[in-house]
Design goal:
cell membrane, globular, 2 domains, 184 residues, mainly alpha
């Protein structure tokens, strides 16, 4: 168990240190690390964990660390993965704040950050496509209806995203209750 916690800690520190672009990027890298490389979580579980992390208030990287840590090692896994996730940004931001005046006008740093924005856009695009393909593989018409209905409600009718999320939660609860009682 201790070896697994150290591996979890090291992996989360590494991902958090070298991931630029926010939570959606780190979630993709978590999937590659914990699903594809370590096989600690299967792909369907990871999709569920990402959905939980996105639905909860707060930073998605920390929420992702919480759900993955819990899945891997329970409460101790949560503590280890959250500390490992917040430690690198905390150190980096502390260093940057000390040297902010130097970084602020450095042309090389400016170009580097512009380049990172392009890469982040590509990685987020990959996340969206992979998650959509995961939904399409299920081949359940209800998933398609919810996904496209949510898009249409938000994009065309300007329905607030919070209302859409709450509606999807209610639909998920009702669907789960229905499956447990009638489909078994």
């Amino acid at each position: 168990m201790i070896k697994k916690l150290w591996k979890l800690f090291y992996s989360m520190v590494y991902l958090s240190t070298f991931t630029f672009g926010g939570g959606y990027v780190i979630v993709t890298l978590m999937q590659k690390k914990f699903v594809d490389e370590y096989h600690w979580i299967n792909k369907d579980e990871m999709l569920d964990l990402v959905a939980i992390a996105q639905s909860a208030p707060g930073a998605i990287a920390v929420n992702g660390a919480i759900v993955v840590g819990y899945k891997i090692a329970g409460v101790l896994g949560i503590i280890v993965s959250v500390i490992a996730t917040i430690l690198p940004p905390f150190i980096i931001i502390s260093v940057v704040s000390v040297f902010y005046s130097i970084f602020k006008e450095n042309l090389i740093v400016h170009y580097m950050l512009d380049g990172m924005q392009s890469g982040v856009g590509a990685v987020i695009g990959v996340v969206v496509v992979e998650m959509a393909l995961g939904i399409f593989k299920e081949k359940k018409i209800s998933y398609y209806l919810i996904m496209f209905g949510s898009f249409i409600a938000n994009y065309f009718f300007k329905v607030n995203v919070v209302l859409i999320i709450l509606t999807c939660i209610v639909i998920g609860i009702v669907y789960s209750i229905y499956e447990r009682r009638f489909v078994q």
